[in-house]
Design brief:
mainly alpha; two-stranded antiparallel sheet; 8 helices; 59% helix
Length: 157
């Protein structure tokens, strides 16, 4: 392997490591937020969750915070998994499948997270018994042109 490829591989490995740390951190944040909410921290301190998240030292959106909480609640509280079991997995994928995961199928879905893309998971959740390879797709594509600026885009109908 030449020097350029070795450096690129090193960067790739660093990115993977940082992504895994990010996933672990998000789930840990979900745990901490969940525990604060369960222990009435916000009521006791006369502060809203929104204000807490807006604090410059926290600075997280409610969407992200609730996603973290909901993933923690689903997989750790409801399904009884350990943080170590899910901390290496993509939080967004865990979030996408949480509506269909239960104690009977959790191992199957966690295995799918390792191999499938987010869009593939979305499709499986929305259309669980449909195989796109067997489907006779019925869409038609057309082009639309904006009358104001002339930009053209493809539209599926």
């Amino acid at each position: 392997m030449d020097k350029k490829h070795a450096e690129n591989f090193k960067r790739y490995e660093q990115i993977k490591e940082i992504a895994q740390v990010k996933n672990k951190t998000n789930i840990m944040l979900g745990q901490l937020f969940y525990e604060l909410k369960e222990n009435d921290y916000f009521e006791a301190n006369n502060i809203t969750f929104s204000a807490f998240l807006a604090d410059p030292e926290i600075n997280l959106s409610e969407t992200v915070a609730y996603r973290n909480i909901n993933v923690y609640k689903k997989y750790v509280i409801e399904l009884g998994l350990k943080l170590e079991d899910i901390q290496h997995l993509d939080l967004m994928k865990l979030d996408r499948i949480k509506s269909v995961v239960d104690k009977k199928n959790v191992e199957e879905w966690l295995a799918k997270i390792d191999t499938l893309s987010r869009s593939d998971l979305d499709r499986l959740v929305k259309y669980p018994n449909k195989d796109p390879m067997d489907c006779k797709h019925k869409w038609t594509c057309s082009k639309e042109k904006c009358s104001s600026c002339g930009e053209i885009r493809n539209v599926r109908k």
